[in-house]
Design brief:
Blueprint lengths: L9 E2 L11 E6 L4 E6 H6 L53 E2 L4 E2 L1 E2 L3 E2 L1 E2 L2 E2 L10 E5 L4 E5 L11 E3 L12 E3 L7 E7 L2 E6 L2 E6 L19 H8 L31 E2 L7 E5 L4 E5 L17 E4 L14 E7 L28 H8 L26 E2 L7 E3 L5 E5 L4 E6 L6 E8 L4 E4 L15 E11 L2 E7 L4
Parallel strand pairs: 17-19, 22-24, 23-25, 24-26, 25-27
Antiparallel strand pairs: 1-3, 2-3, 4-6, 5-7, 8-9, 10-11, 12-13, 13-16, 14-15, 15-16, 18-19, 20-21, 26-28, 28-29
């Protein structure tokens, strides 16, 4: 076939589209239509030894404009890139999108069920135990409550075949002609089943907790009562009285004299005493022996006094104790190192004073400690006397002179250094460490009547003397560090 442009080829018709036709379809992009060329024409124009022939895109005058597309080196293609065969998106799953059809409504991926077998589903929400049922009047499926009603009102009782006369299961027989086996009720110990027009009720007592019998209410025997009953011999029961009387029971004495070893006819205030000769308990007086008190010997130094009561029979002997007449050293088991008697008039080392006596003796007396300064006479010190430095109100700049003579404050910014609670004759120093902020003073008298200006920053020393509670004089030493 001679050289021809694609636009010069014949247009492909529907009659050419046949497997038996030897036709090759070619797209003419300039006319946006499909042309045809026969394979026979191509073979007829082929040479046995093709010569090298090269065409560039510019040689094709009717090829149109090729789109500019990049090819990624590997992996998934980005926008404006060609897709490689290894692109992961060609093999993994895709979520369905678009409008749903059939019995579904809405859009993918989350459509809803709006029909069942082409019939409309009601959109109302179901309640507990409802089922989906067809509503013929509304022509739709709707949530519906199902209730069963047994219209039979006549039942008869019979025993299941093979059961004994004493072991029967209640069977209610009615006129229902159903032959299906339907379990109507199955709840815990009760089962109600219908089979072949018969309703069978089965019941099992699963309760294992019962009330123990009391004297006023029926019930079961307790384990303790069963143990007591097992301890009684068969002969102890009287069959004639219906088992309500225990025979051969022991006799319980109603009085102490009914005991075999008690022989007592007591008088008032007597007690039982054992008589080893007769081997019996016998009534007798609480005291043993007899006689009267004829004398009471009182040892000197015991502090005891009293007259002798020689009355016959039981009586009271009264003795008195006078502590002033007690000779402590003569007392039995007395130790001077361990025992002391309070004697406010005594002066010996072995006698004690009462608390009130001690308070009276110490009142108005000065301590004997040589390190404590007395306030009623001049004192000469043989060693330096040092006072403490109070810094409890350091950052506030407040100095309470009742707490200490010497103070140390460390302040920043605008602060007022003040003194309070001064005592006449008091003196001391106040160390002021500041950062150069505005510092003023309160409660202090200065030379010339005006307060000095502290140093730019650093440490200043204020020396003061208290003339009276209302006058504290001061001198400021600036720039010490």
């Amino acid at each position: 076939m001679p050289d021809r442009k694609i636009s010069e080829l014949t247009t492909l018709s529907s009659a050419d589209i046949d497997p038996s036709n030897d036709v090759l379809a070619v797209v003419d992009t300039s006319a946006v239509e499909t042309k045809k060329v026969s394979v026979t024409d191509l073979l007829a124009s082929a040479t046995t030894t093709p010569s090298a022939h090269t065409h560039t895109l510019s040689d094709i005058t009717d090829s149109g404009t090729a789109a500019s597309r990049n090819v990624p080196a590997s992996g998934n293609a980005d926008n404006s890139e060609c897709v490689l065969g290894s692109d992961a998106r060609l093999t993994n799953s895709r979520e369905t999108t678009g409008a749903a059809g059939g019995d579904l409504s809405g859009t993918y991926p989350n459509p809803g069920v709006s029909k069942l077998q082409g019939r409309e589903m009601d959109s109302s929400a179901p309640t507990d135990a409802q089922v989906i049922a067809w509503n013929n009047s509304e022509s739709k499926w709707k949530p519906t409550t199902v209730s069963l009603t047994d219209t039979n009102t006549t039942y008869s009782q019979s025993a299941i075949d093979g059961s004994t006369s004493t072991e029967k299961i209640l069977r209610l027989t009615g006129s229902d002609a159903s032959t299906s086996d339907v379990k109507l009720i199955s709840a815990g110990a009760i089962s109600l089943t219908r089979n072949n027009n018969e309703i069978t009720i089965s019941a099992t007592d699963t309760d294992t907790t019962y009330t123990v019998a009391t004297t006023s209410a029926d019930g079961l025997m307790s384990s303790g009562d069963k143990t007591k009953l097992d301890g009684l011999a068969q002969a102890d029961w009287s069959s004639s009285s219906g088992g309500s009387q225990i025979l051969n029971k022991p006799t319980i004495p109603s009085a102490i004299n009914d005991l075999s070893n008690v022989n007592a006819s007591p008088s008032n205030n007597q007690i039982l005493k054992w008589n080893s000769t007769t081997s019996n308990w016998e009534a007798g007086d609480a005291t043993s022996g007899s006689g009267d008190i004829t004398a009471v010997n009182i040892t000197a130094g015991t502090g005891l006094s009293g007259s002798v009561n020689t009355a016959s029979g039981d009586h009271t002997q009264t003795l008195s104790v006078d502590e002033a007449n007690v000779d402590h050293d003569s007392l039995q088991n007395y130790s001077a190192a361990q025992h002391r008697v309070i004697n406010d008039s005594g002066t010996s080392a072995t006698e004690l004073w009462s608390a009130s006596k001690i308070s009276t003796e110490l009142s108005g007396k000065e301590p004997a400690d040589a390190d404590i300064v007395k306030s009623d006479s001049p004192v000469t010190f043989s060693a330096p006397v040092r006072g403490g430095v109070d810094s409890t109100q350091s950052s506030a700049g407040t100095c309470d002179l009742s707490e200490s003579n010497n103070h140390s404050v460390s302040i920043s910014g605008t602060t007022t250094v003040s003194v309070s609670n001064p005592t006449a004759g008091q003196s001391g120093v106040i160390v002021i460490t500041h950062d150069g902020g505005a510092v003023s003073f309160s409660g202090i008298k200065w030379e010339g009547g005006s307060a000095p200006t502290p140093s730019t920053s650093g440490v200043d020393l204020l020396v003061y003397y208290v003339e009276s509670a209302s006058r504290v004089s001061g001198v400021l030493l600036k720039g010490l560090a």
